[in-house]
Design goal:
The chain has 255 residues and is α/β, with parallel strands linked by helices. It has a single domain (5-245), classed as Rossmann fold. It is built from eight helices and seven strands, in the order βαβαβαβαβαβαααβ. Strands 3-2-1-4-5-6-7 form a seven-stranded parallel β-sheet, with helices on both faces. β1, α1 (22-33) and β2 form a beta-alpha-beta unit. The longest helix has 26 residues, at 109-134. The termini are far apart. Bound molecules: NADP nicotinamide-adenine-dinucleotide phosphate. Residues 17-18, 20-24, 42-44, 47, 67-70, 95-98, 118, 122, 144, 146, 189, 191-192, 194-197 line the site of NADP nicotinamide-adenine-dinucleotide phosphate (NAP).
Length: 255
Amino acid sequence: MAGTGLFDLSGEVVLVTGASRGIGAALAKGLAAAGAEIVLAARSEAALADVAAQIRAAGGKAHAYPLDVATSASVDALFARLAEDGIAPSILVNNAGTEEVAPALEVTDALWDKIVGTNLKGAFNVARAFARARGGVPGAIVNLCSLASEVGIPTAVPYTASKSGLAGMTRALAVEWATLGIRVNGIGPGYFRTEMTEGFFAAEGWQQAMLAKIPQRRFGELDDLVGAAIFLAAPASAYVTGQILYVDGGYLASI
Ligand code: NAP
């Protein structure tokens, strides 16, 4: 019957990278509430354990594993441990990311490598390991893109390059892996208050200036992203691949 099970995630195992705080933790909790079993991964193990405990306390199922997405050895070690533990993620939420602003003339090699190595190469490392582990079984990937996937953000050149690259990677993988049954899509958040963006939110006059550019005249709440993640993970989006769904209060539509 039309509609039945379209948004049902029971039986799915979702790996969420960067799940120790912010958007990743919120998506992990939201996807767990939608019925998925969650694998939380990031570098901060104590914070991951806390998020896992919150999911279990709400009646969900969660596991926590250490992961540094920027190192392919760490990514491969995670997938080896998951295989040993009999856990096979069917959906990947590629959320781990980092940002540090600096004028382009002051960007060091180390800063470029940290940001692009985490946000772009890191996302590829995990996508590749995920697809290898699927071994031809269908699955879905959701990459956390950004307004910076579409527009240039001054003093955020490595970040903008990484997120534009991630949008390109989303499309290229979607095309290449379509015949494997792995759908690859993205979510592009507008401005959400997290540890990553607290510097922007704290800057004098920034909130007022930004709100004037957001048609809905408010910043995103973390829960605003959950519906998009459920949709892109669930059977409802079975014929959607290579797309980026912007959740931005209308910002991109207005420029
Ligand atoms: P956040 O609060 O700083 O959280 C970043 C997460 O990524 C943390 O859980 C962090 O965990 C993890 N992480 C960073 N480097 C990692 C690494 N090398 N390996 C594994 N995990 C790593 O940022 P957020 O705002 O929630 O951002 C989440 C994603 O959304 C990012 O990709 C970001 O670019 C994107 N995004 C955010 C906004 C926004 O307004 N907040 C807007 C657009 C896009 P550990 O430190 O424990 O490893």
